[in-house]
Specification:
heterodimer; A: 208 residues; mainly alpha; B: alpha/beta; FAD/NAD(P)-binding domain; five-stranded antiparallel sheet; 21% strand
Chain lengths: 208, 517
């Protein structure tokens, strides 16, 4: 039997409803663990539009775990994954950006790590194998909002990586046939200019 | 007298225009309606929140297509992120990016609407002449078996071997070159989307289209709507420019689709006695991924050409579902396939020989299935709250469908099948599929669920206490407001929805026209 699935809290109030936590985190917010900061990575040359340097560091660490390092694949650095995610996030609405920033902060927050997993090190300061265990904890958590967090971050990072055509070769994806793409095709705006002939124009006698 | 297609670039100061009918939305509903009204010499103004993108931009790359042609850049989802929502957002709406699958509405669905919701006049007999006209105009016909791609063949052959009913899909294409990139915009206009067919037809008859115009509010006075207020968006950044476009109209037709239409009504204070935003149906989809011996290359060829409706009726207490296949492109495959690190890379390396089957569940039929809801979010933002709780009947259907799909894939020659659980269930030929799947976690966030078909939110029906619009698609409590899109469907369909929406819009265009007089 499949039990009636619990309602997951809204992503809009990830912290408030999901972690009881709002209060707990606030209470402990000034404590030692909450102030432990993770490793920093140098920000990208083009500058960050959405994320802070520490959030960028978390994204970069996540990218190195979500994306493997099998031979033949472009590296996280070659694609510029964390930067790509920053630019994707830039096009989202303010509430989405705020949630993403919260989520990244929570991921690296040592107090949250301690409460969830008994760790006292921020995510970015953990060795790779321990980082993978943290990801698995979020993925398999009984708390729905943590699974939501895992899925959201994973999707974002993978989208940031696989948007790059550098990934096509290791996939074995040949890419589209560019001979069919016509950037100089006429764009019709009406205004009594005759509509250009094309496949969308109807000719009743053409019954193909 | 030809109309014009404007974009956000053309409107640099607050503008007011007048029309007989203002149509909000340019997808399957809005486009068909506009073409019918414009051809009757009514002055029609169409508002579309998304951009005017044409084949001059359709480079068949996901990194361009998702931000330009999909709601929330392809990241729309239920609030809890459990259901990924693929929904179009540009001139042509969903028809610009869908996979061309065209089904007439099943009789049993129309019968249910008549018996349970008091829907009148939306019958097979009434719709048939409209479907026939549209099928001619949009070149809708069966895709030949000999042209079927390998991805579809696995479903076709697997169903054949297991004795499951199967059929060939009809597609709205003309001079199709089999490029397989329908979901990213057709670069040769072969797809007979609204973007290249009925919208330009209507512009030739005088329709004015305003792209990058986000309708924010209906202007309601007493029992009448007087027009629509829209925010102009910058065509490149998609953010408001501060310019307002006001359309004064004798009649307004809201055609924004199953999520954005109810949201516009709610923003305008129209709650439909509490029914607006209710009964949201999504055709929730579960997915199974198979490894084949031979190349599949599911990015080539007509994305959908085979289907099975064998499991559409599993009795009144259980959700039915139907089987189809999706195209695979790298970004969507990477985000949908499970796992991370080297394991995920290994799956991606096998993408060329990966076959994927989807089961599309028909919601709104099991007793008590009232679907999900759309609610308003921050009034300053365009994003709305979408809730779609997954109930016990969903999980039962998902598990059953995954078992059936694995059987079909093995019958079609798969050497391994995986579920799209966050920790996938791995199945080999000869495994006890039912037992292994039963042991998997069927809970939100642990298995990928998606939707490409959004329906409901402005339910059609006889009784104003339980529906939003009447059988003519008129808002119950106003004289001249119509909703003409997938949001009026009282249940889901059990088939891909575009032709149902085309047909109902064309049938009811006469009612919209009559309200102008």
């Amino acid at each position: 039997m499949v039990p009636d699935a619990p309602r997951s809290p809204s992503r809009r109030s990830l912290l408030k409803r999901g972690l009881l936590g709002g209060a707990l985190l606030a209470a402990g917010g000034a404590g030692f663990l909450a102030l432990r900061t993770g490793k920093r990575v140098a920000p990208p040359a083009g500058g960050l539009h959405v994320f802070s340097e520490s959030e960028y560091g978390v994204l970069d660490a996540l990218a190195h775990r979500f994306i493997g390092s099998l031979p033949g694949w472009p590296t996280v650095e070659e694609v510029g994954v964390a930067l790509a995610v920053d630019r994707i996030a830039e096009k989202t609405e303010p509430s989405v950006r705020a949630e993403l920033k919260q989520l990244l902060g929570l991921f690296d927050n040592a107090l949250a790590g301690f409460l969830f997993g008994g760790r006292t090190e921020p995510f970015t300061a953990l060795p790779s194998a321990a980082q993978d265990r943290v990801l698995e904890e979020w993925r398999d958590s009984r708390i729905a909002v943590r699974r939501t967090g895992y899925n959201a971050l994973r999707t974002l990072v993978l989208a940031g990586y696989f948007q790059s055509p550098l990934t096509w070769k290791p996939i074995g994806y040949p890419g589209p046939d560019d001979s069919f793409f016509q950037p100089d095709a006429p764009v019709w705006f009406g205004r009594s200019v005759p509509r250009p002939e094309g496949n969308g124009v109807y000719h009743p006698e053409d019954t193909r | 007298m030809s109309g014009r297609i404007f974009t956000g670039k053309d409107l640099v100061k607050d503008t007011e225009v007048s029309a007989d009918v203002c149509v909000v939305g340019s997808g399957a509903g809005g486009a068909v309606l506009s073409e019918q009204l414009a051809s009757k010499d009514l002055r029609v103004v169409m508002l579309e929140e998304g951009g005017y993108h044409t084949r001059s931009e359709f480079n068949m790359r996901e990194s361009w297509a998702y931000p330009a042609l999909y709601q929330e850049m392809g990241n729309r989802a239920t609030d809890d992120q459990t259901v990924l929502i693929l929904q179009g957002r540009s001139v042509g709406g969903g028809t610009t990016v869908n996979w061309c699958t065209s089904f007439r509405t099943p009789q049993r669905v129309l019968d249910k609407w008549a018996s349970d919701f008091g829907v009148q006049g939306i019958t097979t007999a009434a719709l048939t002449p409209h479907w026939e006209a549209l099928e001619r105009r949009l070149h809708i016909r069966e895709w030949p078996l000999e042209a079927m791609n390998r991805n579809n063949q696995v479903l076709w052959e697997g169903c054949g071997k297991l004795g499951f009913s199967r059929g060939l899909i009809r597609r709205n294409v003309h001079n199709c070159a089999d490029l397989g990139k329908c979901g990213l915009g057709c670069p040769i206009d072969a797809k007979q989307s609204m973007l290249v067919t009925l919208i330009p037809d209507a512009v030739e008859h005088g329709l004015d289209v305003y792209a990058n115009a986000s309708a924010r509010r209906l202007l309601v006075e007493g029992r009448r709507v007087r027009g629509v207020e829209a925010q102009i968006l910058d065509a490149s950044s998609d953010t408001p420019t501060g310019v307002t476009l006001t359309v004064r109209a004798k009649t307004v037709a809201v055609c924004g689709g199953a999520i954005n239409s109810p949201a516009l009504l709610l923003r305008s204070g129209l709650t439909g006695r509490g029914n607006v935003g209710k009964r949201l149906f999504l055709h929730p989809v579960v997915i199974m991924s198979a490894q084949m011996e031979q190349p599949v290359e599911a990015w080539n060829g007509a994305p959908q050409s085979a289907y099975s409706h064998h499991f559409i009726d599993r009795g009144p207490e259980r959700m039915g579902y139907f089987l189809e296949v999706p195209p695979l492109y790298p970004m969507i495959a990477a985000t949908v396939l499970p796992g991370f690190g080297a394991a995920h890379q290994s799956l991606m390396q096998r993408l060329p020989s990966t076959q994927v089957t989807i089961a599309i569940t028909a919601d709104g039929f099991v007793p008590g299935d009232v679907g999900g809801t759309v609610r308003l979010g921050d009034p300053k933002e365009r994003r709305v709250h979408i809730d779609y709780p997954l109930r016990p009947w969903h999980w039962e259907a998902f598990r059953d469908a995954c078992e059936v799909m694995a059987r079909v894939q093995f019958a079609g020659g798969a050497r391994e099948v995986i579920s799209l659980h966050a920790s996938p269930v791995r199945l080999r030929p000869g495994d006890d599929i039912a037992r292994l799947l039963a042991a998997a976690p069927w809970e939100p966030g642990r298995v990928r669920v998606a939707t490409a078909h959004q329906m409901g939110g402005c339910c059609m029906g006889k009784d104003a206490e339980h529906s939003v619009v009447d059988s003519s698609l008129r808002y119950h409590d106003l004289d001249n407001l119509f909703v003409v899109d997938g949001s009026v469907l009282p249940t889901s369909l059990g088939v891909n929805p575009q032709e149902t929406i085309f047909g109902i819009a064309r049938l009811r265009s006469a009612d919209v026209a009559a309200s102008v007089a």
